[in-house]
Each structure stands twice: as C-alpha cells, then as structure tokens.
Amino acid sequence: MGPRRADGYHGLVTVFHAISLFEEVTAESADQDGVTVTGEGADRVPADQDNLALRAVTALRAAVGGAARAPGVHISITKRIPVAAGLAGGSADAAGALVACNELWHSGLDQQQLGAVAAKVGSDVTFALLGGTAVGRGRGERLTPALAPATAYHWVLAFADGQLSTPEVYAALDRLRASGAKAGHPEPSLDAALMTALRSGDATRVGRALSNDLQPAAVALFPALRKTLAAGLELGALGALVAGSGPTCAFLASNADRALDLAVSLSGAGVCRSVVRVTGPVPGTVILPDPKTAK
Ligand code: C5P
Predict the structure, then answer these.
(1) 0.85 cut: is pTM over it?
(2) Whole-number mean pLDDT of the chain?
C-alpha cells in the first residue's frame, strides 16, 4: 500500500481473489431509476442515488449516450455479502448492475469497455466484473489475471458484529504511518512470496504468505479482531487476514473437511457474529437466464 495521493486514494499493488459468496442483481425497465434491496444487511444499504448499483446505472448511461439509449431501470438486489464488511459487496452490486443494464439496453459494451465504466464507479468494481485471482494496481482498478494452477482454496469467513468504513480505515492507516517509528511512504510492490505461493497452488504456502497492509488499521479501529484472528490460527487455519478494509476475517484451510472443522470451532469460540465457508477463485459477474422467460 502506497501513501495517500493528491486525489485522496492510495496507490496499491494487491491480489484480488473472488469467493463463492455472491449477490443477485436484476435489472428491469421502469419509468424512473430505482433500487430495491433485500437480504443480509439490506436495511443498511442506501436506496437512493448513493446506492453503488444506481451510480453504476448512471455511469453506464453516460457512457452509452444518455437516456435515449438507456431509459429508466429498476435494480433489485438480493444481498448475501454483509454491508461494510471489507468484502466489496457494494462493488459486486455495481458490477452486476453494469452487466445487467448492458444486456437490458443492448448497449454491446465489451468486458474492457465495461471495465472502464466500472473503474469510475469504484476502485474494486472492475475486479468484481472479472473475478478469479488477479493482481490489482493503481487504485485497484488496473488488473492483470494471476497465472496459477486450478487450485480450489477453502476459506472460512468470520463476520464481525459491526462494520468498518473503508475511508476511515485508510485514514487510520495514514495516522498509524505518520506516528510510527518507520514513518515514511513505502512504494507499493507485488508480494513475491505470495505470487510464488499462488503459482505453486500449495495452500500451506499461500496461507503463510497472506498479509494485508490495512490490517493494523482495521484492528486499531476494531480491537476485537485481534482475538478473532488469533482464534482462527489456534484452531488450525493455514493463514489468516482481515479481508479488504475489514472487519471480516478470512481463514484459509487445507481442504473442505478442515474448513468445516474450523468453521464449527470458530463459531463455538464466540469470537465473531457468524461464520461461512466459501471457495475461490470463482468467476466475476455472470449472466443468469431470466427465470420469467427461461424454459
Ligand atoms: O473507490 P471506492 O469508492 O471504493 O473507495 C472508497 C474509499 O476508500 C475512497 O474514498 C478512499 O478513501 C479509500 N481508498 C483509498 N485507496 C484506494 C481505494 C480506496 O484510499 N486504492
């Protein structure tokens, strides 16, 4: 993670990894734009123009030539990814809205063109389109797919009893760095140990190489995470890290059985709100057949 830039963002080099926890996003023609949100944490998602999916609709409309080519749309979102959890759920909703509206409006944008619109909506939206495992640069929007064997990784996610705001976590990182002994501005670089581990496809090596520069900031704002991370490692995780800007903690297990054991023990340890098992990598945004017209 680099220093805060003049535009307020932090230049970074990161590895994105898409997991099997997904949202369902539907777009239907409507007189005017709107959004309905149901599911996990729906009451905490804005239902106005601040909604990331609606911002994506507006950005795509501007890119394809305005309201004549891109009339009103109602977006419905079924959430499974907790809100403000560090898992880019809002970015996934935005990516879903872009793909759905591109279909609905017959806009014909290709993946690269959609990616350019996605980058304007949020730093992680481009990856939510692409999925898989990818190296992100810039704000996170410049992506290179990571070449790696077809390993399925088994993760356990510990959802926290609370939320963290991404800008606040970045601001806490800036404060920690400004006050730290090693004050200065590290230039971001690709983590060679992690890339080697990913190329090997060996979960043990990947587990050892997991790290997140935002973790100390997330833990400073949400001290209970220290206990959650320690508990997962004590219970046999191959590695642990705060996901994104937190407060979700992600634990890597060696296989599906170990992941199940870990999930059961972690939820019994009382160090988080709830636990889910997921796998990765998975594709990014995919188009499902319309249940109303599918035979
Ligand atoms: O791009 P997005 O709107 O998702 O970013 C949310 C906030 O996270 C930004 O306003 C900024 O404070 C912070 N951020 C950052 N550096 C990045 C990505 C996000 O500082 N590379």
Answers:
(1) yes
(2) 96
